[in-house]
Amino acid sequence: MDKLLSGKAIAHNILEHDLIPRVEKLIGQGITPKLVVLLIGNDTASESYVRQKEKAALEVGIEIEILRFSENVEEGEIFRTIEKLNGDDSVHGFFVQFPVPRHLSREKITASIDPQKDVDGLSAQNLGELFQGKSTLQCCTPKGILTLLEHESVEIAGKHAVVIGRSNNVGKPVATLLLQKNATVTVCHSHTNNLEKYTQQADILVVAVGKPEFLHGDSIKEGCIVIDVGIHHLKNGKICGDVHFESASKKASKITPVPGGVGPMTVVSLMENTIQVAENRI
Ligand code: NAP
Q1: Nearest CA residue ID for atom 31, ligand 1
Q2: What's the pTM value of the predicted model, to 2 decimals?
């Protein structure tokens, strides 16, 4: 299906033609980029995301270390580890795989990571710089979505982009990046009245709601470009997104599949950020 926006294929292309040569150059200069992951608890989805990141890092030549912590780990142990990683010159970037167990604060963890090593791009400094339009460590999913649209030569300027979801890691930053590319942007959320009024107007629709098959094809206009950020592992073993793919793909001019759409673009952005930190050090 040529309307399919295959993040998997684009990510592979970027890995092969951009990231691998950049890592080879760094290694030639005596620097091997190193990424560390803090994985807390036994969340199956998190385990699977970390495996995908590990696979990509190994493919591209980034050294990766996974630090595992039990579900009941004390907050102090996490902060001591973060402090150590902040001060370790051999580590270029690190991140905590979210979600974390309820007794840990996502905000406090994010705030304790050195923004120069915050390859997830979620610190206040990096998010602030993203909002100012500076070239910085951008959060991975929004950056991946923009890269995907650029690779597919999707015209963004002048288009009406509708984003459903306003989280700090997806909805708000992706809306900002689309605005910086001169789209007219509408951000919808759980208090939006008559959501369909907005989705029907969208030339580009980004769905980051966190609800399986939330958006049906009836709610979009013919020719819309649909970016499905959601990812859900269903009890029957299937994986689906926030969009009802079968109905939406009949009306969309381009659509991301789940899996194989936004997910691989998020991973490739993480690799790019890690390489960027290593390059910036030179
Ligand atoms: P989140 O923090 O839970 O945010 C969900 C957003 O959806 C909120 O802003 C919420 O509005 C809005 N929402 C909920 N119900 C709604 C409704 N009925 N109508 C309109 N808006 C509604 O989730 P997230 O972190 O942004 O992630 C969203 C999805 O993307 C999840 O499935 C997540 O697993 C997935 N994800 C995928 C990747 C990837 O690489 N593929 C990366 C990150 C996240 P309020 O603000 O009003 O509550």
Answers
A1: 210
A2: 0.98
